[in-house]
Write a structure and sequence with these properties.
This protein has helices spanning 10-21, 36-43, 64-74, 87-99, 114-122, 142-148, 171-183, 235-245, 254-265, 267-291, 318-328; strands at 24-25, 82-85, 105-110, 126-131, 153-159, 187-191, 215-216, 229-232, 306-307, 330-331, 333-334, 344-347. It is α/β, with parallel strands linked by helices. Strands 4-3-5-6 form a 4-stranded parallel sheet, with helices on both faces. A 3-stranded antiparallel sheet has the order 2-8-7. Helix 4 runs parallel beside helix 5 (114-122). Bound molecules: pyridoxal-5'-phosphate (PLP). Pyridoxal-5'-phosphate is lined by residues 29, 87-89, 113, 159, 163, 191, 193, 216, 218, 224, 229.
């Protein structure tokens, strides 16, 4: 297989047209997006520094100040291990491409967020599956993982909290996972896109042994369109990632880096209102599921802003999703995008804002 054969990303493909056609979006795995004006108000300033941005290239791993702020929050004392990326998507692509070679075995979750398996496969890896079982409420069972490890296992790729169900590993589980992988001498690749969206407890951080650790402003901060994320990995791996990046994006935009810097310097001002909104929405979703007992079952998401309910008796929800869009202009995701057509992904991070087709400004804004 070569890179040109990489499979069509089912989730992006599902959202490509529908995202702009729907008025009400309850499909997303991210919180309600901010406008620039809202961001300026939250950050309490005029953002006058924006006037001084010079539109030159940034360093290959991102501007130093941003790397330091990321490190202070997510990898204390390790700014040299931070690379600024175009969202988690680029972090996943670069890190897995740098880490894996044909013939490596890689364990991925199932159901899986497609990029985490498709990029590994395109790098020539053979996939083994760590299934999160519906009958366990999608809770990760480390014994099931251990059975998938072999002497050829190069990496275990996880994302906790988990898209689409919001399941997570607790502290003891994270410790056991790190110890298990150290014993098997394989890498732990941890996608932490939702690490700051946790309802009952502190943010979930990856064990420090993890490589990759893509994280992003997309999901918890409501700033998807800024397209800024970051990766924390050994500088050795970052150097390999830079080599690959030189053929794609070269670097991130200095304008977006400055916005990201300002956001992370006041992270809680941006994060907490959206976490509160998501917490209330999650309660409303679970109340709705409880009120429709027998018609819907919904495992409780520990983190993230997506749920993966079942509608007993419905073997494939895809037609129902299409009907919701056509009749009511409501967007959800068919579980088919995660290899589970019998389940539906519902996003609960949003607000009551109604989308207007193809607009990048909020209705009413000029
Ligand atoms: C688990 C996971 N990782 C990464 C991403 C990509 O995020 P970004 O918008 O930062 O590229 C997503 C987006 O849905 C995701 O669900």
């Amino acid at each position: 297989m070569s890179l040109g054969d990489i499979s069509t990303p089912p989730l992006e493909d599902w959202l490509r047209e529908r995202y702009f056609a729907a008025s009400l979006d309850i499909s997303s795995s991210g919180v309600l997006n901010y406008t620039l004006g809202e961001l300026r108000d939250l950050l309490g300033g005029q953002m006058s520094e924006l006037d001084d941005v010079i539109f030159r290239d940034s360093p290959s791993t991102g501007c130093e100040e941003l790397r330091e702020v990321v490190a202070a929050r997510f990898a204390p004392g390790r700014a040299e291990a931070v690379m600024v990326t175009h969202g988690s998507t680029e972090g996943i692509f670069l890190a897995l491409s740098a880490l894996l070679r044909p013939g490596d075995e890689v364990v991925v979750l199932a159901p899986v967020y497609y990029a985490l398996s498709a990029v590994a496969e395109a790098a020539g890896a053979r996939l083994r599956v760590w299934e999160l079982r519906e009958e366990d409420g999608f809770r990760p069972d480390l014994d099931l993982l251990e059975w998938q490890l072999t002497p050829r296992t190069r990496a275990v790729v996880v994302n906790f909290p988990y898209n689409p169900t919001g399941a997570c590993l607790d502290t003891a589980g994270r410790r056991r996972l790190a110890a298990m992988l150290a014993r098997h001498d394989c890498h732990l690749f941890w996608d932490a896109a939702f690490g700051e969206l946790i309802y009952d407890g502190p943010p979930v951080t990856a064990p420090t042994e993890a490589e990759g650790m893509p994280h992003t402003l997309s999901k918890a901060y409501g700033l998807r369109g800024i397209r800024v994320g970051w990766c924390v990995a050994e500088p050795r791996l970052l150097a390999e990632m830079v080599r690959i990046r030189d053929y794609t994006t070269i670097s991130t935009s200095p304008l977006n880096e400055l916005l990201a810097l300002e956001v992370l310097q006041s992270a809680d001002h941006v994060l907490l209102p959206r976490l509160e909104l998501a917490r209330n929405n999650r309660a409303a979703l679970l109340d709705w599921a409880a009120a429709h007992d027998g018609l819907v079952t919904c495992p409780v998401p520990v983190g993230g802003v997506s749920a993966f309910p079942r509608f007993p008796g419905v073997a494939d929800v895809t037609d129902a999703c299409e009907t919701l869009l056509q009749r009511h202009s409501v967007l959800v995701v068919s579980g088919r995008c995660f290899g589970r057509a019998d389940l539906m992904r519902i996003g609960f991070g949003g607000g009551r804002r109604v989308h207007h087709r193809s607009r990048t400004t909020r209705p009413g804004a000029r």
